[in-house]
Design goal:
416 residues; alpha/beta; Aspartate Aminotransferase, domain 2; Aspartate Aminotransferase, domain 1; 2 domains; globular; binds pyridoxal-5'-phosphate
């Protein structure tokens, strides 16, 4: 009775179809129990963790493998949760057939290692993400691919690094943590006519700020782990290519090396992305306000934000990113390590953690994390000191966050 009433009230069937009746249920727990039909109207994205997919017949399997019919065979090759996530990022980047990978570094590996061969040469930005730098300086040379690092804010420096055998250029639009803006258009003008593959890591900037394919990129990479997924609970990457041959080469390479992603991580990331635009816009507005508030506080020697007039690449940031100058702010305080320790301790509500793009603000200290491998002189050459901090601004109320930063900076100035 009650069930019938509820069914009438909501206009639904009384029970899901196709759950097995007791007399037809498998007599062993080994056999799969069928999934209730009717779930296709569920509002939430289903999570499909299956490793393997059965086919109707050898002919049907042929059709799937040959791309004549949709379908999945084995999760390392493809699975629905990766497809859904890839389609979501494809739409943002204006890409087709993007590939979701098990991490941002897996995407970098698919692009670099999946497309080059021994004897090729690759040029990289000199301030790439640490692990990408390592791939350039250690792994590619070990496999017979020579590499050169050059300053991507200066197209002439990139041009000087090119060789007849240069196969690819890898750059990030905004560098970590000094937030310099690459001359993407200038570099694309070098790469295009020479047939060099231009690979752009768009993690910091995201397609909200720039769509590198529109600026001549051949391949776009993301650490989905960061702003896109946004909740620091999934490690994932994405790589898309303009050229179908690149796409296919990376897909095959990623499948062979097992660079592909877990369904659960994809499910989490796709869920996180529902709020991506809102998070991005809110964090960016707060980042701008934070940069302005930091400037002029006691002991603050420098504030770096691409949306400020005192940024060295201000004009290029405006041309490439418009008003979308991001959620990252870097600043430097006086007083060396004691002041740095005092700041982190005083900012106790703000996570001191070497990541970015989380829904909440995180604070990182390059000298002891991302740039700890460099000597103090090497860091100084980049303009980094013991007092340098990088902030990944989250979506907290701006007044709360700005007040906490101001108090922490004043505590550091008193300690330094
Ligand atoms: C974090 C990051 C990566 C690597 O991504 P993972 O998901 O951590 O493997 C690559 N590039 C940039 C710019 C990053 O910030």
């Amino acid at each position: 009775m009650a069930q019938g009433f509820i069914a009438r009230l909501f206009g639904r069937r009384e029970a899901p179809r196709a759950l097995p009746r007791p007399d037809t249920a498998p007599r062993t727990t080994v056999r799969r129990t069928p999934w209730p039909e009717g779930t296709e109207r569920a509002l939430g994205t289903p999570l499909q963790p299956s490793v393997v997919y059965g086919a109707e017949s050898p002919d049907a399997l042929d059709a799937i493998y040959e791309g004549r019919a949709p379908g999945y065979t084995y999760a390392r090759e493809a699975h629905p949760n990766a497809s859904v996530l890839a389609a979501k990022i494809d739409a943002l980047e204006g890409a087709t057939g993007g590939l979701v990978t098990g991490s941002g570094m897996a995407a970098v590996a698919a692009a670099l290692l999946g497309l080059v061969r021994a004897g090729d040469h690759v040029v990289g930005g000199d301030q790439l993400y640490g692990r990408s730098l390592r791939m350039m300086t250690d792994d590619l040379p070990r496999l017979g691919v020579e590499t050169t690092l050059a300053d991507p804010t200066d197209a002439a420096a990139i041009e000087a690094a090119l060789r007849p055998e240069t196969r690819a250029i890898l750059i990030e639009v905004v560098s970590n943590p000094t937030l310099r803006v690459a001359d993407l258009d200038g570099i694309a003008r070098l790469a295009g006519p020479r047939g060099i593959t231009l690979i752009v890591d768009n993690t910091f900037t995201t397609p909200r700020a720039i769509r590198p394919f529109r600026h001549g990129a051949d391949i776009v990479i993301h650490s989905v782990t960061k702003l896109l997924a946004g909740h620091s609970d999934a490690t994932l990457g994405y790589v898309a290519a303009k050229d179908p041959a690149h796409r296919e080469a990376m897909r095959v390479f990623a499948t062979t090396l097992g660079l592909t992603a877990s369904p659960f991580d994809c499910w989490l990331a796709e869920r996180g992305m529902h709020s991506f635009e809102l998070r991005y816009d809110r964090a960016e507005a707060t980042a701008r306000a934070l940069a302005d508030r930091l400037d002029g506080l006691p002991g603050v020697e420098r504030v770096i934000y691409p949306g400020r007039d005192d940024h060295p690449d201000r004009a290029r940031a405006a041309a490439l990113l418009g008003a979308r100058t991001g959620n990252m702010v870097t600043f430097q305080i006086a007083g060396g390590r004691p002041a740095a320790n005092a700041l982190v301790r005083a900012a106790e509500r703000i996570a001191f953690a070497p990541t970015l793009g989380d829904v909440a603000t995180t604070l990182s200290h390059p000298a002891t994390s991302s740039h700890r491998g460099l000597s103090p002189e090497g860091r100084a050459a980049l303009g980094l000191s013991e007092g340098s901090f990088r902030v990944s601004v989250g979506v907290e109320p701006a007044d709360l966050l700005l007040g906490e930063f101001e108090a922490a900076i004043r505590a550091a100035a008193a300690a330094g």
